[in-house]
Design a protein that fits this description.
globular
């Protein structure tokens, strides 16, 4: 009996799921690191580590690669800055749930740009938004940190849509290299007043920073660029809705965060949304 060959779409889906899993591990690590390091310092050290590791992939840089990498790098820097600043004041799991709202923004922005909006994507987006709302709600109105995190979600949606157009034009690691170097440069400008005062804290947090730079930065940037060559942006965004589920699991394991009844219901809605998104119309 001949085995059915794995399609590029299936490979892309599995790759993006792995990216989402890695992102899920980052929230508790980031939350712990931010307890002693300013967000600007975290960005410059994290992306500098990634930039040095990706230096060999800058050997054949072109004007188009530089332009596209700077565009993506700018969006990446802004959304990361908003997310980290917001994460200082809210829980890791709450941050992950709000960031996950990019699943709604991607198809809606895409529709504004003239992309088709299949019915099952609307249903899945509604389920995902409901799930993340239930998981994140713990009473009270939106705080400034929540608003910053929502801005990060919008930035991620824009990044996903830009990446869909840009990724096919470049080698994934070369594109990632330009992005991290540009983010590191912007981060250095922002972090300059803080770096001089946090040398000891940086040393103490170096294991976490190495993980964030080498695994959580390079891995997803490469995986996204490769996976989104084969998976449309609207489907990629729905796969990314599993991020708060993974983040909650790792927050429970690493930070001792509890999973409430609302959290469990929200997680079920998100899983249902992912299944619905895979149904072809």
């Amino acid at each position: 009996m001949t085995a059915t060959p794995v399609t590029t779409h299936q490979k892309g889906t599995l790759l993006l799921l792995l990216v989402t899993l890695i992102w899920g591990t980052s929230f508790p690590v980031l939350k712990d690191t931010l307890s002693s390091i300013h967000p600007s310092v975290l960005i410059v050290v994290r992306y500098s580590i990634a930039a040095v590791a990706l230096l060999p992939w800058l050997r054949q840089i072109s004007r188009q690669l530089l332009r596209d990498g700077m565009i993506l790098g700018t969006v990446l820097f802004l959304e990361t800055t908003c997310a980290l600043t917001g994460l200082e004041m809210i829980s890791a799991s709450r941050s992950a749930f709000i960031v996950g709202l990019n699943v709604v923004a991607v198809p809606l922005i895409g529709a504004l740009l003239g992309k088709p909006l299949p019915r099952q994507i609307l249903v899945a987006a509604g389920l995902a938004a409901t799930g993340m709302s239930v998981m994140s709600w713990d009473g009270g109105g939106l705080s400034f940190s929540d608003v910053l995190t929502l801005a990060s979600a919008l930035g991620i949606a824009i990044y996903i849509l830009f990446l869909e157009a840009i990724a096919p034009r470049h080698k994934p690691l070369s594109l990632a290299a330009v992005q991290v170097w540009f983010v590191a440069l912007l981060g250095a400008i922002w972090a300059l007043p803080e770096v001089m005062h946090q040398g000891i804290n940086i040393g103490e947090q170096m294991p976490s920073l190495l993980y964030l730079g080498l695994v959580d930065t390079i891995g997803p940037l490469w995986g996204q660029a490769m996976g989104q060559k084969w998976v449309p942006a609207r489907e990629a965004a729905l796969l990314y809705t599993l991020e708060p589920v993974f983040a909650t699991i790792f927050s429970v394991l690493l930070l001792g965060d509890g999973l409430s009844f609302n959290g469990a219901i929200g997680a079920i809605c998100i899983l249902m949304a992912t299944v619905v998104s895979r149904v072809r119309s």
